[in-house]
Amino acid sequence: MRRTIVAACIVLACVGLSFSPVASAPTALQVMDTGVVAQYPGSLQFTVSAESPHAVTDVRLLYQIDKMNYARVTSESWASFEPATSVSTSWTWDMRQSSLPPGASITYWWKVRDASGDVVETNPETVTFNDDRYRWQSVESDHVTLYWYYGSDAFARELLDVCNQAIDMLAEDVGARVDRRIIVYIYQSAADLRGAMVYPQEWTGGVAFTDYGIVAIGMGPGDMEWGARALRHELSHLVVHTLTFSPYGGLPTWLDEGLSMNSEGEPADTFVSVLRHAVADDMLISLRTLNGPFSSETQKAYLSYAQSHSVVRYLLDTYGPESMYELLMLLTSGETVDSALRQSYGSGLEDIDAAWRIAVKGQMANA
Ligand SMILES: [Zn+2]
User: Fold this and answer.
1) How many whole angstroms separate alpha carbon 308 and alpha carbon 286?
2) Residues whose CB is less than 8 angstroms from the CB of residue 268 and which lie 6 or more positions away in sequence, other chains included
């Protein structure tokens, strides 16, 4: 019996010599392995295993999301397990609670503690939450990386040109420069795009994840006219958001949506006709109301967009891009809408609204 144990020990020692440290007991707390399992769009599972001569008592994941923020925010999540000298556990990010867009990057590391008080932290690693249900290809320009999986190279290049032109136009109209790489995902259809989101809204054909510098559009090669508009619209939200990012809250809705509509190009017929009817029937919405969220009623929503576009176009045509840039900077520095308008245009919200109404009635009469 004793001889058998000795023999076994010799065999183990040999194995230990050739394949250390697999067979040896840990002499200190150490993290053996870490990993990430992504299941787009639902979850991101972080795994870890650790060993120690003492029971491992505390395992937590620390992580930072790569997005616009006033300070680098580190979050902490605890993995649950029974304390033991060898532990394999995980923590799962359930996207139904707080979701991440496709292409979002997370830097993470583990902090492990054992019963003796020893603590080990792993080196930070970065994982990108890619929508790997599709085989993405990519094209790049100075400011944009565009990913697509359906359609020709020419289709992707055409869309990349649309992005570049929209960025140039924003620089001209509002002085917005792009200072971080913009990521664009072209899904083949609105249905595919909705499938990429945890809580899709029924109408979603395009979406800007402004804090992340990411835009996603659902369009195929046959949807070029509509899709290019949607792309310009969402890119504008992203670029304007980057320019005006501040702790004082967002822009008035009419200004943000008006700039995005302006980036689209000439307004679609539906918007022109909605605006024309509202002018004729004296049914225009007050500009002050349009500071807030737009109505969810379809007709009112259309009119809100049409009016916002018309007001922004009026301000740009009448006063030029410098005043628009000044307005955006004043709002970014925490000025109220009235005060910012007065400083950049010499009139408050009601006066701007009144002047625009006269101008738009004149345009409609002449058209
Ligand atoms: Zn919009």
Assistant:
1) 11
2) 229
Model confidence over 244-260: pLDDT tens digits? Answer: 998 888 899 999 999 99
Output the domain CATH number for residue 239: 3.40.30.160
pLDDT tens-digit series, residues 102-144: 999 999 999 999 999 999 999 999 999 999 999 999 999 999 9
Distance 249 CA to ligand 1 centre (A): 17
Global model pTM greater than 0.90: no
In a domain, 330, yes or no: yes
85: domain CATH number is 2.60.40.10
Output the CA 259–ligand 1 centroid distance in Å: 9
* Domain around 303: 248-367
Residues 6+ apart with CB under 8 A from 100: 44, 65, 93, 106, 129
Distance CA 214, CA 201 (A): 18
Q: Ligand 1 centre and the CA of 62: distance in Å? A: 34
Count up the domains in the chain and report the number.
3
Q: Which of 203, 229, 245 is the last residue of a domain?
A: 245
Exposure string (b/e) for 312-332, b if CB count within 10 Å is 16 or more? Answer: bbbbbeeeeeebbbbbbbbbb
Q: Are residues 290 and 253 in the same domain?
A: yes
- If asked whether residues 328 and 360 sit together in one domain, one would say yes
